[in-house]
Amino acid sequence: MNIANKTILITGANRGIGRALVNEALLRGAKKVYAGTRNALPNVDPRVTPLTLDVTSVSEIQRAADEVDTLDVLINNAGVAMYDDLSNSDVIEQHLAVNLLGMLKVTRAFLPLLRRSKGAIVNNLSLAALAPLPIIPAYSISKAAAFNMTQSLRALLAGQGVAVHAVFLGPIDTDMTRGLEIPKASPESAALGILDGLEKGEEDIFPDHASQPMAEAWPTGVVKALEHQFRAFVAENAVNQ
Ligand SMILES: NC(=O)c1ccc[n+]([C@@H]2O[C@H](COP(=O)([O-])OP(=O)(O)OC[C@H]3O[C@@H](n4cnc5c(N)ncnc54)[C@H](OP(=O)(O)O)[C@@H]3O)[C@@H](O)[C@H]2O)c1
Question: pTM of the full predicted structure?
Fold first, then answer.
Protein backbone atom coordinates (compact mmCIF):
# COMPACT_ATOMS: atom_id res chain seq x y z
CA MET A 1 0.00 0.00 0.00
CA ASN A 2 1.46 3.32 -1.14
CA ILE A 3 0.07 6.50 0.43
CA ALA A 4 0.77 8.59 -2.68
CA ASN A 5 -2.44 9.41 -4.54
CA LYS A 6 -4.60 7.63 -1.95
CA THR A 7 -7.66 8.93 -0.13
CA ILE A 8 -7.36 8.59 3.64
CA LEU A 9 -9.70 9.19 6.54
CA ILE A 10 -8.22 9.80 10.00
CA THR A 11 -10.38 10.06 13.12
CA GLY A 12 -9.33 12.29 16.01
CA ALA A 13 -7.39 14.35 13.49
CA ASN A 14 -7.29 17.71 15.27
CA ARG A 15 -4.43 17.04 17.70
CA GLY A 16 -1.82 14.58 18.89
CA ILE A 17 -1.04 11.54 16.75
CA GLY A 18 -4.07 12.14 14.50
CA ARG A 19 -2.88 15.57 13.48
CA ALA A 20 0.65 14.23 12.88
CA LEU A 21 -0.83 11.49 10.69
CA VAL A 22 -2.66 14.07 8.58
CA ASN A 23 0.61 15.96 8.01
CA GLU A 24 2.61 12.80 7.29
CA ALA A 25 -0.01 11.55 4.81
CA LEU A 26 0.15 14.90 3.00
CA LEU A 27 3.97 14.73 2.93
CA ARG A 28 3.71 11.29 1.31
CA GLY A 29 1.53 12.64 -1.47
CA ALA A 30 -1.95 11.57 -0.35
CA LYS A 31 -4.53 12.76 -2.86
CA LYS A 32 -7.11 13.61 -0.21
CA VAL A 33 -7.22 13.42 3.58
CA TYR A 34 -10.55 13.43 5.39
CA ALA A 35 -9.89 14.81 8.86
CA GLY A 36 -12.50 13.51 11.29
CA THR A 37 -12.94 15.83 14.27
CA ARG A 38 -15.57 16.59 16.89
CA ASN A 39 -15.12 20.35 16.50
CA ALA A 40 -14.53 22.43 13.39
CA LEU A 41 -10.95 22.22 12.11
CA PRO A 42 -9.24 25.26 10.57
CA ASN A 43 -8.45 24.15 7.05
CA VAL A 44 -4.79 24.42 6.19
CA ASP A 45 -4.27 22.41 3.02
CA PRO A 46 -6.56 22.14 0.03
CA ARG A 47 -6.16 18.35 0.12
CA VAL A 48 -7.67 18.19 3.63
CA THR A 49 -11.44 17.87 3.91
CA PRO A 50 -12.80 18.32 7.43
CA LEU A 51 -15.48 15.86 8.54
CA THR A 52 -17.52 16.32 11.71
CA LEU A 53 -17.14 12.93 13.34
CA ASP A 54 -17.74 11.99 16.94
CA VAL A 55 -17.08 8.27 16.80
CA THR A 56 -19.78 7.60 19.42
CA SER A 57 -22.49 9.31 17.35
CA VAL A 58 -24.30 7.00 14.95
CA SER A 59 -25.87 9.96 13.13
CA GLU A 60 -22.54 11.76 12.66
CA ILE A 61 -20.89 8.55 11.45
CA GLN A 62 -23.68 8.05 8.92
CA ARG A 63 -23.51 11.67 7.75
CA ALA A 64 -19.72 11.42 7.38
CA ALA A 65 -20.03 8.18 5.39
CA ASP A 66 -22.56 9.88 3.09
CA GLU A 67 -20.06 12.70 2.41
CA VAL A 68 -17.22 10.39 1.34
CA ASP A 69 -17.45 8.76 -2.08
CA THR A 70 -14.15 6.93 -2.26
CA LEU A 71 -11.71 5.74 0.41
CA ASP A 72 -8.46 3.75 0.37
CA VAL A 73 -7.35 3.91 4.01
CA LEU A 74 -9.29 4.34 7.25
CA ILE A 75 -7.15 5.20 10.27
CA ASN A 76 -9.11 4.65 13.50
CA ASN A 77 -7.12 6.94 15.76
CA ALA A 78 -9.66 8.71 18.02
CA GLY A 79 -9.28 7.58 21.60
CA VAL A 80 -9.70 8.51 25.23
CA ALA A 81 -7.68 7.60 28.32
CA MET A 82 -8.60 8.30 31.93
CA TYR A 83 -6.89 7.24 35.12
CA ASP A 84 -9.01 4.78 37.13
CA ASP A 85 -8.84 1.77 39.44
CA LEU A 86 -11.75 -0.27 38.07
CA SER A 87 -14.01 0.91 40.91
CA ASN A 88 -16.43 2.69 38.57
CA SER A 89 -17.93 0.74 35.69
CA ASP A 90 -19.05 3.98 34.00
CA VAL A 91 -15.39 4.72 33.32
CA ILE A 92 -14.96 1.31 31.66
CA GLU A 93 -18.05 1.94 29.54
CA GLN A 94 -16.76 5.38 28.47
CA HIS A 95 -13.53 3.82 27.25
CA LEU A 96 -15.33 1.01 25.45
CA ALA A 97 -17.74 3.47 23.79
CA VAL A 98 -14.88 5.34 22.08
CA ASN A 99 -11.91 2.97 21.89
CA LEU A 100 -13.80 -0.21 20.97
CA LEU A 101 -17.34 0.47 19.75
CA GLY A 102 -16.50 3.81 18.12
CA MET A 103 -13.77 2.07 16.15
CA LEU A 104 -16.14 -0.71 15.09
CA LYS A 105 -19.03 1.59 14.14
CA VAL A 106 -16.79 3.83 12.02
CA THR A 107 -15.24 0.77 10.38
CA ARG A 108 -18.62 -0.73 9.51
CA ALA A 109 -19.84 2.56 8.03
CA PHE A 110 -16.85 2.89 5.68
CA LEU A 111 -16.46 -0.79 4.85
CA PRO A 112 -18.40 -0.66 1.56
CA LEU A 113 -15.95 1.97 0.26
CA LEU A 114 -12.93 0.01 1.51
CA ARG A 115 -14.21 -3.19 -0.09
CA ARG A 116 -14.57 -1.35 -3.38
CA SER A 117 -11.02 0.08 -3.26
CA LYS A 118 -9.49 -3.10 -1.75
CA GLY A 119 -8.27 -0.72 0.91
CA ALA A 120 -6.84 -0.86 4.41
CA ILE A 121 -7.96 -0.27 7.97
CA VAL A 122 -5.38 0.90 10.52
CA ASN A 123 -6.40 0.65 14.17
CA ASN A 124 -4.32 2.69 16.60
CA LEU A 125 -3.96 0.45 19.64
CA SER A 126 -1.40 0.50 22.43
CA LEU A 127 1.15 -1.70 24.15
CA ALA A 128 -1.52 -1.70 26.89
CA ALA A 129 -3.54 -3.95 24.55
CA LEU A 130 -0.91 -6.66 25.12
CA ALA A 131 -0.43 -6.22 28.87
CA PRO A 132 -2.49 -3.91 31.07
CA LEU A 133 -1.02 -0.70 32.38
CA PRO A 134 -2.68 -0.89 35.80
CA ILE A 135 -2.80 2.89 36.34
CA ILE A 136 -5.21 2.99 33.38
CA PRO A 137 -6.89 -0.43 33.54
CA ALA A 138 -10.16 0.64 31.90
CA TYR A 139 -8.20 2.06 28.98
CA SER A 140 -6.12 -1.15 28.83
CA ILE A 141 -9.29 -3.27 28.71
CA SER A 142 -10.65 -1.20 25.83
CA LYS A 143 -7.40 -1.48 23.84
CA ALA A 144 -7.14 -5.24 24.49
CA ALA A 145 -10.72 -5.62 23.27
CA ALA A 146 -9.99 -3.43 20.24
CA PHE A 147 -6.96 -5.63 19.44
CA ASN A 148 -9.11 -8.76 19.63
CA MET A 149 -11.67 -7.10 17.37
CA THR A 150 -8.90 -6.09 14.96
CA GLN A 151 -7.77 -9.73 14.71
CA SER A 152 -11.33 -10.88 13.95
CA LEU A 153 -11.86 -8.16 11.34
CA ARG A 154 -8.55 -9.14 9.74
CA ALA A 155 -9.72 -12.72 9.37
CA LEU A 156 -13.25 -11.80 8.30
CA LEU A 157 -12.16 -9.23 5.70
CA ALA A 158 -9.15 -11.02 4.25
CA GLY A 159 -11.27 -12.70 1.59
CA GLN A 160 -12.73 -9.34 0.61
CA GLY A 161 -9.38 -7.73 -0.13
CA VAL A 162 -9.40 -5.36 2.86
CA ALA A 163 -6.18 -5.39 4.92
CA VAL A 164 -6.51 -4.77 8.65
CA HIS A 165 -3.52 -3.42 10.58
CA ALA A 166 -2.97 -3.15 14.33
CA VAL A 167 -0.68 -0.44 15.68
CA PHE A 168 0.93 -1.01 19.06
CA LEU A 169 1.99 2.43 20.20
CA GLY A 170 4.27 3.04 23.15
CA PRO A 171 4.23 6.35 25.06
CA ILE A 172 3.86 9.31 22.73
CA ASP A 173 4.15 12.95 23.75
CA THR A 174 0.56 14.18 23.40
CA ASP A 175 -2.18 15.54 25.67
CA MET A 176 -3.01 11.93 26.53
CA THR A 177 0.29 11.41 28.37
CA ARG A 178 0.58 14.93 29.79
CA GLY A 179 1.98 14.70 33.33
CA LEU A 180 3.46 11.22 32.86
CA GLU A 181 7.19 11.67 33.41
CA ILE A 182 8.56 8.89 31.21
CA PRO A 183 10.47 8.91 27.91
CA LYS A 184 8.04 9.57 25.07
CA ALA A 185 8.33 9.61 21.30
CA SER A 186 7.08 12.60 19.33
CA PRO A 187 3.71 12.32 17.56
CA GLU A 188 5.53 13.10 14.30
CA SER A 189 7.86 10.09 14.69
CA ALA A 190 4.90 7.88 15.64
CA ALA A 191 3.00 8.97 12.51
CA LEU A 192 6.07 8.23 10.43
CA GLY A 193 6.36 4.74 11.96
CA ILE A 194 2.66 4.01 11.43
CA LEU A 195 2.67 4.99 7.76
CA ASP A 196 6.01 3.22 7.17
CA GLY A 197 4.45 0.04 8.61
CA LEU A 198 1.37 0.44 6.44
CA GLU A 199 3.45 1.04 3.32
CA LYS A 200 5.54 -2.04 4.08
CA GLY A 201 2.39 -4.12 4.52
CA GLU A 202 3.11 -5.05 8.16
CA GLU A 203 -0.15 -6.34 9.64
CA ASP A 204 1.06 -5.53 13.16
CA ILE A 205 2.93 -2.24 13.37
CA PHE A 206 5.34 -1.30 16.19
CA PRO A 207 5.97 2.33 15.27
CA ASP A 208 8.08 3.90 18.03
CA HIS A 209 11.23 3.28 20.07
CA ALA A 210 9.31 1.73 23.00
CA SER A 211 7.33 -0.68 20.84
CA GLN A 212 9.97 -1.52 18.21
CA PRO A 213 11.90 -4.04 20.37
CA MET A 214 8.79 -6.26 20.30
CA ALA A 215 8.56 -6.33 16.52
CA GLU A 216 11.22 -8.99 16.00
CA ALA A 217 9.83 -11.64 18.36
CA TRP A 218 6.15 -10.91 17.63
CA PRO A 219 5.70 -12.84 14.34
CA THR A 220 6.91 -16.10 15.91
CA GLY A 221 5.15 -15.67 19.26
CA VAL A 222 2.30 -17.72 20.71
CA VAL A 223 -0.34 -14.99 20.17
CA LYS A 224 0.42 -14.83 16.47
CA ALA A 225 0.46 -18.62 16.19
CA LEU A 226 -3.00 -18.84 17.79
CA GLU A 227 -4.30 -16.03 15.59
CA HIS A 228 -3.22 -17.96 12.48
CA GLN A 229 -4.64 -21.22 13.86
CA PHE A 230 -8.04 -19.68 14.69
CA ARG A 231 -8.14 -17.67 11.45
CA ALA A 232 -8.34 -20.94 9.55
CA PHE A 233 -11.94 -21.44 10.80
CA VAL A 234 -13.09 -18.49 8.70
CA ALA A 235 -11.59 -19.94 5.56
CA GLU A 236 -13.15 -23.37 6.31
CA ASN A 237 -16.58 -21.87 6.88
CA ALA A 238 -16.30 -19.75 3.76
CA VAL A 239 -15.51 -22.86 1.72
CA ASN A 240 -18.44 -24.72 3.29
CA GLN A 241 -20.97 -21.98 2.50
N1 LIG B 1 -0.20 9.17 23.43
C2 LIG B 1 0.15 7.92 23.72
O3 LIG B 1 1.11 7.68 24.49
C4 LIG B 1 -0.58 6.76 23.12
C5 LIG B 1 -0.09 5.48 23.39
C6 LIG B 1 -0.74 4.38 22.86
C7 LIG B 1 -1.85 4.56 22.07
N8 LIG B 1 -2.32 5.82 21.81
C9 LIG B 1 -3.52 5.94 21.00
O10 LIG B 1 -3.32 6.80 19.91
C11 LIG B 1 -4.55 7.46 19.59
C12 LIG B 1 -4.33 8.97 19.57
O13 LIG B 1 -3.89 9.35 20.87
P14 LIG B 1 -3.23 10.77 21.18
O15 LIG B 1 -2.09 10.49 22.06
O16 LIG B 1 -3.05 11.55 19.94
O17 LIG B 1 -4.38 11.39 22.09
P18 LIG B 1 -4.89 12.89 22.29
O19 LIG B 1 -3.82 13.85 22.01
O20 LIG B 1 -5.54 12.87 23.63
O21 LIG B 1 -6.00 13.02 21.15
C22 LIG B 1 -7.12 12.22 21.16
C23 LIG B 1 -7.90 12.47 19.90
O24 LIG B 1 -9.05 11.63 19.92
C25 LIG B 1 -10.20 12.45 19.74
N26 LIG B 1 -11.40 11.89 20.34
C27 LIG B 1 -11.61 11.55 21.64
N28 LIG B 1 -12.88 11.10 21.79
C29 LIG B 1 -13.46 11.18 20.58
C30 LIG B 1 -14.74 10.87 20.08
N31 LIG B 1 -15.74 10.41 20.87
N32 LIG B 1 -14.99 11.05 18.76
C33 LIG B 1 -14.02 11.52 17.94
N34 LIG B 1 -12.80 11.87 18.34
C35 LIG B 1 -12.52 11.69 19.65
C36 LIG B 1 -9.82 13.79 20.37
O37 LIG B 1 -10.70 14.79 19.91
P38 LIG B 1 -11.04 16.10 20.83
O39 LIG B 1 -9.93 17.06 20.59
O40 LIG B 1 -12.35 16.56 20.30
O41 LIG B 1 -11.12 15.63 22.25
C42 LIG B 1 -8.40 13.92 19.83
O43 LIG B 1 -8.41 14.35 18.51
C44 LIG B 1 -5.56 7.01 20.64
O45 LIG B 1 -6.33 5.95 20.13
C46 LIG B 1 -4.67 6.52 21.77
O47 LIG B 1 -5.32 5.57 22.58
C48 LIG B 1 -1.70 6.92 22.32
Answer: 0.97
